[in-house]
Structures are given as C-alpha cells and as structure tokens.
Design brief:
Elements (H helix, E strand, L loop, with lengths): L7 H12 L5 H5 L1 H12 L2 H7 L2 H12 L3 H10 L5 E5 L5 H8 L3 E6 L3 H13 L5 E3 L9 E6 L9 H11 E9 L14 H9 L1 E9 L3 E10 L2 H16 L1
Parallel strand pairs: 1-2, 1-4, 2-3, 4-5
Antiparallel strand pairs: 5-7, 6-7
Length: 243
C-alpha cells in the first residue's frame, strides 16, 4: 500500500496563496451552506458546476477533514504505486495530487471551471505534470487501471449511467454511495443505494466497506462475477462498518 499522508495545513496554505487578498475565511467555515447559497443564486446545477467559486472553499475544507482517508487506503491497497488512476469529478484535485506524489500516474477529469483552474495552478506550484480532461469537450479515453470518484455520484441525475461511464474507462471502478442526512446539501440527490449495491454485486466485486456509518464504498471490475460471493462481501463489509 502506498503512503499518502494528509496535510491539512498545506491544503489551506495553497488556497490562501492562490486567492490572495480575495480569500475569505468565513466562506471556509460555512463551506456547505456557501455552495447551497451559490446554487440559489445561479439557478441550476449545470451552471453551478461550471462556474462555482464556492467549491474552492468547500472542497478544500472537505479535504482537510480526512473523510476520504479510508477510501484512499482501500484504493491503494488494490492498485500498487505506478498504476494509472483517473480522478473522475476531480474538483480541486486534492486526492489525485496526493496519489501523484505517492508514485501513481494520475489523470484528472471534470468540467472546465474555477476548481480545475486552481488544480492547474496547484500542479505547477508542486512541479507536477498530469492531464486534466474537460468532460464537455475532451473527455478521457479508456485504458485506466482504476477510475475513482469520491462523493460525486450523489450529484448526478442518473447514477447508473454514471457507473456505466466509469466502467467503460477503467479495469477497476472505485466509488462511494452516500446515505442522505436530514440536513443534506441541496446539491446532493438521494441515491437508490439497494439497487446500486445490487448492480455491483453482479460484477466482480473486489471489496465493499461501509465507512462513517453511511458511505458505501465499492471497488469492482465490470465483468461477470459470483452473485453469491458479491452478496457475501456486501454482508462482510457492512458488519465491519457497524463495529
């Protein structure tokens, strides 16, 4: 397993340097509400994802929490350093940057927006090189060892089409399904989690974990697998997550 240490101070320092005098710490503290407020202003999600300034704060604050540490641990446990990874829906690219520095070949994919412009700046600042694919005009091609997408699928209208796209791009798909909270952000759609888990149970399910009590992480290959084994891995991962 590759070592990919979390550095919250670095996350914050880079955002402050990038924004300069425009940095507003209150927006970092209100990182979820700030995006909902911005959505109300712009009027629709498609525009939000291509224009959002608040996601610079939202994604920085979220990266600093360490929420995705177990997701990255599972990913790097199954894909050794040197593997080709696609960070799909990358935003500001915090996960992919860490994986790059840990020795992986990483490609980033998202809409052209302020977050990916910040990611370009971060790559230059760290002296790293990686392709950033524009999902509107130049999406990534197939051939990746793994395509991962953390805390993204709850933003899309059709989660099964989203999975089919990831399955067409990589040997291994790594994605999490979030159960909703009572105060879930407006940009999150409620997912049909039983149906999604049934979908992956019919593939070659390599691993399933229930993290944080509500995040169903699946790592699977898009080829026929044993439904009995898939169901057994779902049950085992659920028991582990409830301990």
């Amino acid at each position: 397993m590759a070592r990919i240490p979390l550095d919250p101070d670095r996350e914050l320092a880079e955002l402050k340097e990038y924004l300069g005098d425009a940095y507003d710490h209150a927006r970092l503290q209100r990182y979820e509400q700030a995006v909902d407020d911005e959505l109300a202003d712009v009027g629709d999600e498609a525009t939000l994802y291509r224009t959002s300034q608040m996601y610079l704060y939202n994604l920085t604050a979220f990266a600093m929490t360490g929420t995705k540490e177990p997701y990255l641990a599972d990913l790097t446990d199954l894909v050794p350093a040197g593997g080709r990874l696609l960070d799909y829906g990358c935003g500001i690219g915090s996960d992919g940057l860490r994986l790059l520095e840990a020795g992986y070949e990483v490609g980033f994919a998202d809409f052209a927006n302020p977050s990916t412009e910040y990611l370009r700046w971060r790559l230059r600042k760290r002296g790293l090189q990686a392709e950033i694919y524009d999902l509107d005009s130049a999406p990534p091609q197939a051939g990746w060892d793994a395509a991962y997408s953390f805390d993204v699928i709850e933003h899309v209208d059709d989660p099964f089409a989203f999975l089919a796209n990831l399955e067409s791009l990589a040997t291994l798909v790594v994605v999490n399904f979030l159960e909703p909270l009572p105060d879930e952000p407006d940009v999150h759609h409620e997912l049909p989690i039983p149906a999604l888990l049934d979908h992956v149970a019919n593939r070659r399910l390599r691993r399933y974990r229930l993290h944080h009590g509500r995040s169903h992480l699946v790592l699977y290959e898009n080829r026929p697998g044993s439904r009995v084994l898939g169901r057994a891995r779902l049950a085992y991962g659920r028991r582990r997550g409830q301990k």
